[in-house]
Structure formats: C-alpha cells, structure tokens
C-alpha cells in the first residue's frame, strides 16, 4: 500500500490471530447522565379572580419502589413451529398460560403488551421458560338438556343453547429474560436524576394499565381504551360506528407521578351479520349487487366469527 505522496507505508502488518482465542472488544464509554432540574417558576399570578379548576390529572404513588420489573421476550408459535402472526390472539394465549401454569410461574401477575414483551414484578423461576398451551374456541349450539346433541334425541325434548368447544389450537410459548428495570428509576426522575431506565419504567406502568383495561374487555388502540357500552357508540353510516373512550398516560411532574386521562374517539365496524354490513357499507339493497372484490379488500381489516 502506498501513501498519498507515493512513498511506501512503514506501518507493520497486524499480528496473526492465535487459534482458539477470541480478541476482546473495547466497551463503548458511556457518559453519565447529568441530573436535570425542572424549570423553576418566577412566582404565581396575583391579579384576576381565583377559581377552582378540575383537571384530568391524578396523582400516583408506587408501593415497593425498590422492586424491579423483569422484562421477558415473548415468542409465540403454532404446534408446527410456525410463528403466530395473527394480531389479537396473543392475549388469549398468555391468559391461558397464566391460568394453566400458575404454580410453575410462581403465581406471578403478567403485564403483556399484546405483542413481544411481557413484564413481571420479580423474576420468574427460570431464565428461559417454554410451555405448551391449548386454547379453545367456542360456538353456540342447541344441545339437549339431558344429553349430547345427536340424531337420536327424541323429538320435542328439552333443548337449550349452550357454548361448546368446536375447535382447539395448540401454541408453543417461549418466555426469555430480556432486562431488569428498577422501579426506582421513576422516583429518581422526579428528583431530576433521569436515567436510561426512566422511559422503560414509565412504559411498563402504561402497559400495566392497558392490561387492566384488557381484562375488563375493552378495545385497545395503542394508549386508548374503549368500553363495550352502547351509550359510547355513534352510528356514522356505511356500517361504521364511532366509539368514545379514553386515552391514558403517566407523566412525571413537579408534584410527582401523574396519570393523565383524556377523551379519545375511534371508528369500528358495526357488529352484526356480514351480509347486513356489506349492504350498508356498499349502499345496495340486494346481496346479488355486492361487489365481492371490494369486500375481500375490506375483510383484511375485519375479524369475522362463525356462530
């Protein structure tokens, strides 16, 4: 190799690598985060009429702030090791996992984000956990009150509508330890000592709140949640309804940790028979006039169920 002035480079070649020895890599030097202080007020207003104001902020305190959140990576697969890519199925699988293997999981409560992350307070017994979970789908059918459905049921016998499993799916669940997040990062941030764990810790308590909403049967859309209450629905036409709900987030403030609740709105497909939705959506009066190609594109955003 020659230098720019045409002279040979006098640098010696690098030494040969010794077989079986892996060279050490120098760690990147991390600069310590400087404590941040909140902007100080010069004073309070003195003119005008004082009023009482109700806000949508609620003060929050953490119990056992010296504990740790444990972050686990979630890998969901079908029985044939195919990755689960269907959205919405993860929560059912994790809920069934918690019910089935409570003892093996040290009776820990989960905070699951619905995708790839799961959090617990305290560690699970194993660093890597593998389980098999069977989830049942249910349908509604008429069944004799004193027996199972069949052609030999006597005519006119007492029949009642019951929920019975018609399909089961087997999942493989892997929970692998990913990180340890101190709860104290939140209290430190409130004192102006923000660390690399601050946003992670606040994200965990946001997920805990979402988990609570999911257990109540709410529709979750990012940080918003919507109760299944007809009084919250507004018919927008075209088979679509507007749904009123709430948006939640935790914030670090001068007064401490605060939960902010704000109103939110989303649009959903009106629940009901698919044919009725298509007639309303495409503004036609007969099923023979339905544009099925357009329906196939629309079906991608819907979640039909069979009864």
TrEMBL record:
Pfam family, one: ArgoL1
Top-level taxon in the UniProt lineage: Eukaryota
Listed InterPro entries: ArgoL1, Argonaute_N, PAZ_dom_sf
Compositionally biased intervals (Polar residues): 140-151
Positions of the UniProt region annotated as Disordered: 1-21, 140-165
Segments forming domain Argonaute linker: 219-271
Protein name as it appears in the record: Argonaute105
Record organism: Zea mays (Maize)
């Amino acid at each position: 190799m020659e230098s720019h002035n045409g002279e040979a480079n006098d640098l010696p070649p690098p030494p040969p690598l010794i077989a079986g020895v892996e060279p050490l890599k120098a760690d990147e030097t991390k600069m310590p985060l400087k404590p941040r202080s909140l902007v100080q007020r010069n004073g309070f207003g003195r003119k005008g009429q004082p009023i009482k104001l109700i806000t949508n902020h609620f003060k929050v305190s953490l119990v056992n702030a010296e504990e740790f959140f444990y972050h686990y990576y979630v890998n969901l697969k079908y029985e044939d090791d195919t990755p689960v890519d269907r959205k919405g199925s993860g929560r059912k699988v994790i809920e069934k996992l918690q019910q089935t293997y409570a003892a093996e999981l040290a009776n820990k409560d989960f905070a699951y984000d619905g995708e790839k992350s799961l959090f617990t307070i305290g560690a699970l017994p194993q660093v890597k956990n593998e389980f098999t979970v069977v989830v049942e789908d249910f349908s509604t059918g008429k069944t004799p009150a004193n027996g199972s459905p069949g052609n030999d049921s006597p005519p006119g016998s007492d029949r009642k509508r019951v929920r019975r499993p018609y399909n089961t799916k087997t999942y493989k669940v892997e929970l692998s330890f990913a990180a340890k997040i101190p709860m104290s990062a939140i209290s430190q941030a409130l004192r102006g000592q923000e660390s690399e764990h601050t946003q992670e810790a606040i994200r965990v308590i946001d997920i805990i709140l979402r988990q609570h909403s999911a257990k109540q049967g709410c529709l979750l859309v990012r940080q918003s949640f919507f109760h299944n209450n007809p009084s919250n629905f507004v018919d927008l036409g075209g088979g679509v309804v507007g749904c009123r709900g709430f948006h939640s987030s935790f914030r670090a403030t001068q007064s401490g940790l605060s939960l902010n609740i704000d109103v939110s709105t989303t649009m959903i497909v009106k629940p009901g028979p698919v044919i009725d939705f298509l007639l309303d959506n495409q503004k036609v009066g007969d099923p023979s006039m339905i544009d099925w190609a357009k329906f196939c594109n629309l079906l991608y955003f819907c979640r039909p169920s069979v009864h």
